[in-house]
Amino acid sequence: MTNPTEHALPANSMVESHEGDFGCTVMELRKLMELRSSDGIDQINVHYGGVMNLCSRLKTNPVEGLSGNPTDLEKRKQVFGQNFIPPKKAKTFLELVWEALQDVTLIILEIAAIISLVLSFYRPPGEENEQCGLPVSSPEDEGEAEAGWIEGAAILFSVIIVVLVTAFNDWSKEKQFRGLQSRIEKEQKFSVIRNGHIIQLPVAEIVVGDIAQIKYGDLLPADGILIQGNDLKIDESSLTGESDHVKKSLERDPMLLSGTHVMEGSGRMVVTAVGINSQTGIIFTLLGASEGEEEEKKKKAKTQDGVALEIQPLNSQEGIDNEEKEKKVTKLPKKEKSVLQGKLTRLAVQIGKAGLLMSAITVLILILYFVIENFVIHRRPWLAECTPIYIQYFVKFFIIGITVLVVAVPEGLPLAVTISLAYSVKKMMKDNNLVRHLDACETMGNATAICSDKTGTLTMNRMTVVQAYIGDTHYHQIPSPDALVPKVLDLIVNGISINSAYTSKILPPEKEGGLPRQVGNKTECALLGFVTDLKQDYHAVRNEVPEEKLYKVYTFNSVRKSMSTVIEKPSGGYRMYSKGASEIILRKCNRILDKKGEVMPFKNKDRDEMVRTVIEPMASQGLRTICIAYRDFNDGEPTWDNESEILTELTCIAVVGIEDPVRPEVPEAIAKCKRAGITVRMVTGDNINTARAIATKCGIVTPGDDFLCLEGKEFNRLIRNEKGEVEQEKLDKIWPKLRVLARSSPTDKHTLVKGIIDSTVGEQRQVVAVTGDGTNDGPALKKADVGFAMGIAGTDVAKEASDIILTDDNFTSIVKAVMWGRNVYDSISKFLQFQLTVNVVAVIVAFTGACITQDSPLKAVQMLWVNLIMDTFASLALATEPPTESLLKRRPYGRNKPLISRTMMKNILGHSVYQLTVIFFLVFAGERFFDIDSGRKAPLHSPPSQHYTIIFNTFVLMQLFNEINSRKIHGERNVFAGIFRNLIFCSVVLGTFISQILIVEFGGKPFSCTKLTLSQWFWCLFIGIGELLWGQIISTIPTQSLKFLKEAGHGTTKEEITKDAEGLDEIDHAEMELRRGQILWFRGLNRIQTQIKVVKAFHSSLHESIQKPKNQNSIHNFMTHPEFAIDEEVPRTPLLDEHEEENLDNPTSGTRALLLDGEVTPYANKNNNAVDCSQVQIVASHSDSPLHSLETSV
User: Fold this and answer.
1) Which residues touch 365 (CB under 8 Å, ≥6 apart)?
2) Is the pLDDT of residue 531 over 90?
3) 394, 909, 961, 448: which is closest to 674 by C-alpha?
4) How much is the average pLDDT of 525-554?
5) CA dihedral in degrees (132, 134, 138, 144; nearest 10)?
6) How far apart are CA 144 and CA 150, in angstroms?
7) Burial class (CB within 10 angstroms; exposed 0-12, middle 13-18, buried 19+) of 485
8) What is the rounded distance in angstroms from the CA atom of residue 1087 to the CA atom of residue 414?
9) Angle between the 1088-1099 and 339-371 helix axes, to the nearest 10 degrees?
10) What is the 3-state secondary structure (H, E, C) of 763-790?
11) Residue 760 phi, psi (nearest 5)
């Protein structure tokens, strides 16, 4: 390989800064990267004189990389740009205020307030006329009448407060979300060679001219040209829509594009375009450039702005034509929203309908009452000069009706959900859970099953060779090098050093006396550690045989289950080293080395004997067994592509047993899961004996249990029919007892997860969480309700398919996620219990008060204050309750458990009865009890009465003490338990109480309040505290005895889904309710629509399908970031669906044949390397990203 010295010239030796310093310009490189395969090669060879020459033009060394000189790097950034796409502007606070103002309820209130204001200034000549039905005002009332404008102004002021609070909440949520995204962004690093050393560099730091190391599972962060590659296959579907993997090699197609996934192999590339000049960047820029045309689309899909490209890797596999999509829409099965979202939407719609009905009836009754009393009973004529006064009355009635609606609609619901989720996500970060999709946090609380990987999750992923079988001898400790024949020792050292990824290596410990650091694939590190333990140096071997000298590499993938490397022998001919799972490699061996290093025949009976005496004893101790073998080719060059003939007739060198100790904290965590009613299953690529041994150590299986441990082959035999199709009934017989699935392929994992989720056996549907770290775990991670990817060992593809990233790869973090998830669910139930009590009481009081006294005892402004307490403040107080261990002592709620249990319904109704009794007593007998003037039937602009002030004050104080009751929802007696652990709760309750004192004492006319005496205050407080005592009485009534209580806020049953969701892409529970009632305008009625934008910013991990573009080859035909997809009416792309699943083994489905079930591989993907093309399709079709469907007309 050429290595001219000028390659490594430091760029700071140049003085000028124009582009001519480098041998090519940005535009030339951009043009070059737009070419494909042979066109690209021709351009490189003709225009640049080959890849090496291009490297020298870019002043980089293909082996050593850039020097890392800061001046040089800075200059490269100036000339070629940074690897960063400038984020879009975030929404300003004013824009968010404007959005909050769009809420229909608020608009109606504003209009009513303005009409009220205008009319209050209008003084018609007939005002004093008794014929108008108004009592004649006394002189002292004159001043009060002048203050009629105050009510309108106060309503407007309250609206402003509500809007500002909403906008502030939206703004802070967006800010938090951006913070979360930038955290994910910072964590994405890439291997780059600088100054001869491989370093992990943040993606944004990569510059043109860098030499990047690429390996399976990587997501390419920039465009580049291949310098050296081994068996490299790339999934370019995110850019081209082609699902077939593209083989990359120097001779055929060396062009590598940003945003594509490495599915197999490894290699090095020189970076030629970064940021906005890369292929992905160009597309993003086009998005910005055509903003005018895109305006409509933007409205359809408000994007999560401001997230740099590195975090939003391109989506894959959506490049099929839109016509095809439209054809398929009819067949697609339905994808549900998150469990909680579905329940909440249904509940909110039902409450909203009830509120609307109540407010309409209220207004109607008030108007009828007024009309009948004035024009029928008193037989007054309708005088023209009285019209404005009548209108003023009607406006007042209208305002009362609106306030009933305002109180009825639970606007605080989305706010409570958002606050609760955002708070949990922030806290979960500290518990090593990086949440990518917010709803995953809440879904985790419902989890009934966890399918976990073994390596790295349950075990420490610190592998060491502890036993070996070499030359007919089973060593139970590492043998000394003298005990081995030099020839055999040499074969072991070469077989391991050469036949493993050169990115795997052992580094000295960070701290004195610590363990050596393992970098790269842990199994390979264990083998390299074995070489070191044999007092040999693998570096020397690798220096002698650098990566460029490797003749052919068969990298590890889930089909091969082994890795082989071919080198040329100095004496001529070739030698191939192989390693892999012992059963697989031994099946391909027909010879073995004996004690003296001589080659002996190795027959089937010898193999069975070896499995019985060596491999099974190792596996039963929980060791993973790896076989090392080799083969010489001396008779000319074989056909390397004919793998089945190459990988046979091997000679076995050794079998080693690798130990991966169980994490000490895992058995305790699994015991917690069992107590919490969660079943843990282990899905691993390891041997069944190893898997069973580890599962026993972890406590997943206990001796004497009636549980199944199956191998992938056996599992497939039991669940498939003669045609090889998976049958749900057969699967239903197996999964409830299955605890360990060994030697499983990624297909098996996906089949199991899908089978459990789709199963209808048992009293409730299962909610499944899955852990995965390999590229091939993508399908299962996507299919699962919650996918956990490993932050340390996980590949980019796995992380992108996941919902939560475990930053410490530890199973105990999953248990913490369960705790937080259950806490979110409980927080929202607490809030609902509080909110619905206020709703029921306020609506009934306003309604009956209006009907009996023609005036609501609670005025519009007071209602808005109550609304603020119960919405914003209560959601803040109750949604931030910290979780307790007791959450893990009950069974999961499951999908169909209603949000409002019978105990909660008992509390809601019980407290409503208390509050209504008190308020009606005060309304109708309060003036006699307190010996004050009655406030009933007061004239239009009369001053506030003490009577109604006491009612308002008592009402608010009862809510305040009921907020403390609402802290417990399972019927616990001690409502104060742990109250001081939640400072937010204490400060909200205290703050509300102080505000209430200020409002009553100094609120005056705007709040329709007047000062109260000390004894009146004590009475109000006494009645409020009565709530706590009443709560104790309610909790003594056994819920079982109250058979009439109904639950509310159910999940959707399967029958409802199929019946109602014909033709819907995604089941939107609200839509169903609306269709039934045809109340289409309800969308605007509650602020849920406004606030849900924020919630959806977190929730929506599904993409909207694109509208048919004007130009079928348009490069704009793709989606912006799905996290902020808002408009519900646009159809969504569902995840992998049942129909496609059924067609999996039908090869005629062309490029969209997903999982090939033809040959069921019984073994495992051990290193979780790459995945065969049949499976990647799914990874692709699920990945979550901005460029969602893109056809390039190249």
Assistant:
1) 850, 851
2) yes
3) 448
4) 89
5) -110
6) 10
7) middle
8) 9
9) 180
10) CCCCCEEEEECCHHHHHHHHHCCEEEEE
11) -115, 5
Token pair, residue 286, equals 């086009």
Dmax over CA atoms of the chain, in Å, equals 125
- Classified as helix, coil or strand, 655 is strand
The two tokens of residue 873 are 């403040």
pLDDT of 12 over the 50 cut:
no
Q: What is the rounded distance in angstroms from the CA atom of residue 399 to the CA atom of residue 383?
A: 24
Helical axes 902-930 vs 811-853, angle rounded to 10° = 40
Measured distance CA(389)–CA(134) in Å, rounded: 9
Active site residues per annotation: 453
- d(CA 985, CA 979) in angstroms, rounded, equals 8
- Looking at per-residue pLDDT, the higher value among 389 and 124 belongs to 389
Characterise 593 by phi-psi region: left (phi > 0), alpha (psi -120 to 50), beta (else). beta
Query: What three-state secondary structure class fits 713?
Result: helix
Given this model, what pLDDT does residue 331 score?
Answer: 32
Distance (Å, rounded) from C-alpha 513 to C-alpha 511?
6
Rounded Cα–Cα distance for residues 816 and 1127 (Å): 33
Please name which of 592, 600, 481, 466 lies closest in space to residue 536, comparing C-alpha atoms: 481
Q: Is the distance from CB of 62 to CB of 227 less than 8 angstroms? A: yes
Tell the residue number behind the tokens 């509390």, with chain if given. Answer: 907
- Dig out the tokens for 760 from the structure: 């209808």
Residue 614 backbone phi and psi in degrees, to 5: -115, -55
Q: DSSP letters of 1091-1154?
A: HHHHHHHHH--SEEPPPPPSSTT-TT-S---GGG---TTS-EE-SS-HHHHHTTT-GGGGGG--
Residue 181 pLDDT class (50, 70, 90 cuts): low
Burial of 789 (0-12, 13-18, 19+ CB in 10 A): buried
1162: its two tokens: 């019984």
Q: Using CA atoms, how far apart are residues 693 and 701, in angstroms rounded to an integer?
A: 9
Tokens of 653: 């060198």
Other CB atoms within a 10 A radius of the CB of residue 976 amount to 10
Residue 1012: name the closest of 951, 1066, 1064 by CA: 951
**Residue 403 near residue 1080, CB atoms below 8 Å:** no
Q: Classify residue 873 by its DSSP letter.
A: I
- The whole-angstrom separation of Cα 1074 and Cα 1072 is 5
- C-beta separation of 881 from 1031 below 8 A: no
Summarize pLDDT for 771-804 with one digit per residue, the tens.
Answer: 887 777 778 888 898 999 887 777 777 887 888 8
Residue 652 has pLDDT above 90, yes or no: yes
Q: Which amino acid is at 528?
A: L
Instruction: State the average pLDDT for the chain.
Output: 75
Q: What is the mean pLDDT of residues 828-839?
A: 86
* Distance, CA of 108 to CA of 402 (rounded, Å): 7
The 10s digit of each residue's pLDDT in 514-527 is 778 888 788 899 99
Per-residue DSSP letters for 1011-1052?
A: ---HHHHHHHHHHHHHHHHHHHHHHHS-GGG-TTPPPBS---
- pTM to 2 decimals? 0.66
Residues 521 and 464: their CA atoms lie apart, in Å, by 12
| Rounded Cα distance, 689 and 1133, in Å | 42
What percent of the chain stands above pLDDT 90? 14
Do the Cβ atoms of 965 and 1028 come closer than 8 Å? Answer: yes
Alpha-carbon Rg for the chain in angstroms: 35
Cα 497 from Cα 145, distance rounded (Å): 95
Instruction: Please give the single-letter amino acid code of residue 1083.
Output: R
Q: In 3-state terms, what secondary structure has residue 658?
A: strand
Query: Which residue type sits at 836?
Result: L
In this structure, which amino acid lies at residue 361? I
